[in-house]
Amino acid sequence: MTQTRETGFRKPQKPEKERSKDQKALLLRLGVSAGVGLAVFAVLLLAAAAVCLRLDVPRERLPWVGIPLAAAAAFLAGYLHVRPLRKQGLLSGLLSGAALYVGALVLAAAVSRTALGSNAVLLLLATLLGGAAGGIFAANRRPAQPRGGKSRAGKPRRR
């Protein structure tokens, strides 16, 4: 009689409590990273508005100043969200960019009472691309190497 064996190992399943705890921690980290990104976006937007007022920039050109600032803030949010995990950079970065987009829409609705129109689509693309880039950058970043005279795990340094 021949017996068939499984060739792979199965990863043990986590209990339901641990999975829900991990999901809560992930959502909390998403909220914190999006909040930090939104705060940075608001500060950058206020600084840019002060400069635009000083230079008498026409009102029609203001979205072209705010959209790159939203992409930079989404990059920061994606980086902060993925940095502790160092995995799933694209998906987590997109999630943090989407959360920042929702926050930016709420901020825009509170500040101006006009419809965003095509600028909302550009803002969505900028925040998603910025968040994804920040997440990918954080996931692919190497851990910091120790400085000093010690070599890596007993191996000599490469020159």
Helical residue percent? 55-70%
Whole-number total of structural domains: 1
Apparent shape: elongated
Distance between the termini: 59 Å
Mean pLDDT: 80
The percentage of residues in β strands lies in: under 5%
Show unreliable segments. Answer: none
How many separate helices? 4
- Whole-angstrom Rg: 22 Å
Element order: H for helix, E for strand: HHHH
Largest sheet: none
Quantity of strands, as a count = 0
User: Structural class, judged by helices and strands?
Assistant: mainly alpha
Compact overview of the structure:
The chain is mainly α. The chain has four helices and no strands.
Describe this structure as you would to a colleague:
By secondary structure, this protein is mainly alpha-helical. It has one domain (29-142). The protein is built from 4 helices and no strands. The longest helix is centred in the first third of the chain and has 40 residues, at 16-55. It is elongated, with a radius of gyration of 22 Å. The protein starts with 15 loop residues before the first helix and ends in a 19-residue tail after the last helix. The relative contact order is 0.14. The mean pLDDT is 80.
